[in-house]
Queue: 3 jobs
Job 1
Amino acid sequence: MQLITSIPLINQLVRSYYMEGLSVGLVPTMGALHEGHLALVRQALAENDRVVVSIFVNPIQFNNAQDLAKYPRTLSQDQVLLEQVGCHVLFCPTEVDMYPAQPRIGMQFEGLDDVLEGAFRPGHFSGVGVVVSKLFHAVMPHRAYFGQKDFQQCLIIRQLVKDLSFPITLRFCPTVRESSGLALSSRNTRLSALARNTQAPLLYQALQLVAQQLAQGHTAALATAQAHQLLAQEPAIQVEYLSVVDTLTLQPVLGGVANPKEVIVCIAAYLEGVRLIDNLWEL
Ligand code: PAF
């Protein structure tokens, strides 16, 4: 696996791939890789001649300085995992390379970025949009891979690709879970064993409860109220939102749901000061 740390060098390498007629897949990450990331890399390897994984902890998508400072950084371990899985290129740009000066650009995704994550993390999706655009320019992939755990990010990136005409095919891959149901996340490493094994899995149980209730014909309002009751049994969990939203508009749905494919059930909650998110998409 080649390690590349500058934009001009990754550009040059990818141009040489293009000259050879090779297709390129990009898996953008912020490192602290886990099985969820590796599943994206495996899918990218199956669909492209060359796979680039980027690791860059993007400061402009953090609206909380503490969250940025505490974000796990495990580069040497990440390198071993990527070697093992057969990744071709690890692209780790420096902060100066990505942001030689504080960027003045901002991005808005009307209607998509002021709800759910966007409501609680102002500026987050602007930062995601800017960094993903920069990574797309730097790596020029044919295909790019993102996890469905960040479903709102998926919708935002879909809009970005459409609005800016990036010639890139997007692949959104299913969330990988621990056997307890807990969605894999780099942030899970900050949880104690108790929280990780017995408290955090309640988030997934709450989502499943909502899905079951909707399938039985109950309204979304009733279904989420019941899930809140389930979560209230564990005072260590502080729910930020638990919502049923329309898959296209992200607007809240409160009534009955005729077609489960039209909604996403999503949750964000704090546990031991760690912010966790999860969702059920394509119920
Ligand atoms: O999902 C992530 O890890 C990040 O938001 C991304 C897409 C790599 C942009 O920094």
Job 2
Amino acid sequence: MTYTSSTVRVPDVAAVPRHIAIIMDGNGRWATQRRLPRVAGHTRGVDAVRAAVEACARAGVEYLTLFAFSSENWRRPNEEVSFLMRLFVTALEREVGKLHANGIRLRVVGDLSQFNDRIQDLIRRAETKTARNTRLTLTIAANYGGRWDIMQAAKKLAEQSAQQGHAAEVNEETFSQHLAMAYAPEPDLFIRTGGETRISNFLLWQLAYTEFYFTETFWPDFDAAALSDAIASYARRERRFGRTSAQLEPQSQDADSLPC
Ligand code: FPP
């Protein structure tokens, strides 16, 4: 599957979302409520990541994208940033074998040049090892920002224009081929845990027609049952992509009125 734009062509939809994108929020508050240091919430957050991956694979979700570290998260206290980096390294070292054994492909998107060599190397090796897996594609967005993504795609088109000596054709198709997640369909369902109701510079381009689901549940408490509730809410939505409700009804009337 490669990216196709919902504003160019209406995608097929099913009761189970093909692609779920999640902002995993509330780790700090989960820990503070328990009088634990904030970083304890991130540690528990990794357990919730594991649970979400397993539940998505079981439900038949094809793509799961998790916002692990935004381009703005560098603004956090140094100790918390360092802790998150160490957690990322440990998770890569410990979990990639299990992901691979379960047929899961791992991708990491974002401006990876800001990470140290060790992390970049672990990412490259994990992506290579799991590249041919097809059960579920797990994407970790790390040092990712939706605006960064749009800018880097625009830059690539500009570079292409300069190389070929004339302006590259710019349309949704040519542009979106340069987005970091050009290998995935647009998310069908966006989930944000932790009670906030904003996108926080996540997949700005790709969320154009995505269904949104916000829950008060803190990320460490977001388990298989919580995911199932989110999917059930999604299944009740009417995805019109700009059309009317009547147009979504079975084709009977139109078919009946066609000349034989
Ligand atoms: C938001 O909660 C969470 C993060 C910025 C980090 C998310 C990281 C993990 C779940 C663990 C690492 C993940 C992987 C894939 C290895 P917050 O700290 O903003 O919580 P708060 O809003 O309660 O303060």
Job 3
Amino acid sequence: MQEAYKHVAFIMDGNGRWATKRGLARLEGHRQGAKTVESILKVAPSLGLETVTFYAFSSENWKRPEEEVNGLMDLLRFYFTSQLNKLKDNNIRLVVMGDKSRQGRLSDDVIEMIERVEAETEHCTGLCVNFCINYGGRDEIVRAAQHFADDVERGLRFVGDLDERLFSTYLDSGLQKDPDLIIRTGGDQRISNFLLWQCSYSEFRFIETSWPDFDGEQLKALLLGNQTVDRRFGAV
Ligand code: FPP
């Protein structure tokens, strides 16, 4: 089956090394990385993409120095509050994947900000942008399993109802289309607990360029080189 890429997901790696190489604080790499996100959002619709997903803060990133964690949270606060109107003007829907529960590790003001941006862009029918924040692929699957088990216990579901489609509705991504392509910048070749359920049939590109040096034009060149994807989903 030949089809164009509709959903591209990004592991935005190499920010810290980009900054250190230039004698800057690691946070400067993340700030520059946020500009790469903007550059990608600008070109994504013209490339025929319907969804883009960014791995912004993993459930393991809490282990980083407090200053870096706080800096990343401030960057997210600034980005979401300053870009909300721009997202709406451009008909962009924003979805945050990850543990957003009040019992989780995100602070209340960040959770409220996420809820606000999600609610205010819910009606947008253009590009869908997923931000993975406090996200881990295994954690997402465990939370989905817990939620399903709760529904069984409350008599809302039967165990026998469970199939892949129903399970997907319990995941953060819901019934969104899986990523066709996952791009990891920064030279490492691993999945780092990203979209473990959703990547079953995805293609992968691992590129040396660090995230702050990547941009929409490079994405365009990369996609034009692989314009269509021929995946057989196990068939011949
Ligand atoms: C990994 O690089 C990157 C992160 C942990 C954070 C990514 C976040 C952003 C780019 C900013 C969020 C975007 C917006 C729009 C607010 P690394 O720090 O592990 O790099 P290294 O491997 O070189 O140390």
